[in-house]
Amino acid sequence: MGALLRLEAVDTWYGQMHILQGVSLEVGAGELVCLLGGNASGKSTTLKTALGLVRPRTGRVWFDEEDVTARPTSYRIARGMAIVPENRRVFAPMTVRENLEMGAYLNRDRASRAEDLDRVQQLFPTLAERGGQLAGTLSGGEQQMLAVGRALMSRPRLLLMDEPSMGLSPLLVERTFELIQRVHDSGVAMLVVEQNANMALAVADRGYVLQTGRIVLADQAGALRAHEDLRRAYLGSS
């Protein structure tokens, strides 16, 4: 069985700037893969390329055995991708429930939308408790939960997460990764872009390390945590 998502020798440019250089990675069905790297390493560009927000100059993007390189973002979302963007980006003037319902905008069946809402609220009971509260009044951690719940309302087969720990306190970072683990345990495949290597590798199955647009390390999460170069660069030497 092939990978659910596969980037194949992708080169991406922003004008004259060569951002991604021969990037290849895979995410299997139900697998949690993290993409690690520092600022300006190309992590978010990789995510945008997977989603179709950026089109590679060379290389291919495959989703569920289909070449979607030339397909728009809307097509990929309809096929089963969803994203939790950097900084959450919830709809602040809308209620928690309205935000969740926005995640199901492609689903015209009222009964199945209600089922999805119930499933997400069971996964995250806080969202059920705060259903009538304005999203903008939630804490950072609660907004992250809402952003994830909103994405899950589309019944994704692949959830993309861009820097989920950014701007959160250490306690909320820990809770965010507990949230990620819960989603992973529910069977959704995930590609998580993250700078916090220690937390990401603690929940991931596999990981890739991106440096100035190139994949420089790729392995099982446990092996990466023990890798000396990675420990020096991201985890601190023992």
Outline:
The chain is of the alpha/beta class and about 240 residues long.
Quick tags:
globular; alpha/beta; 39% helix; six-stranded mixed β-sheet; single chain; four-stranded antiparallel β-sheet; 238 residues
Structural features, described:
There is one protein chain. This protein has 10 helices and 10 strands. Helix 6 (140-152) runs parallel beside helix 7 (170-185). Strand 4 (58-63) and strand 5 (66-67) form a beta hairpin. With 238 residues, it is of the alpha/beta class. The protein is globular and about 45 Å long.
SSE arrangement:
Blueprint (H helix, E strand, L loop, with lengths): L4 E10 L2 E11 L4 E5 L6 H9 L6 E6 L2 E2 L5 H7 L1 E4 L11 H7 L7 H14 L1 H5 L10 H13 L5 E5 L7 H16 L3 E6 L2 H7 L2 E6 L2 E7 H6 L1 H8 L3
Parallel strand pairs: 3-8, 3-9, 6-7, 7-8
Antiparallel strand pairs: 1-2, 1-4, 4-5, 9-10
Helix pairs in contact: 3-6, 6-7
Question: For the largest beta sheet, what order do the strands appear in spatially?
Answer: 6-7-8-3-9-10
Structural class: alpha/beta
Shape: globular
Oligomer: single chain
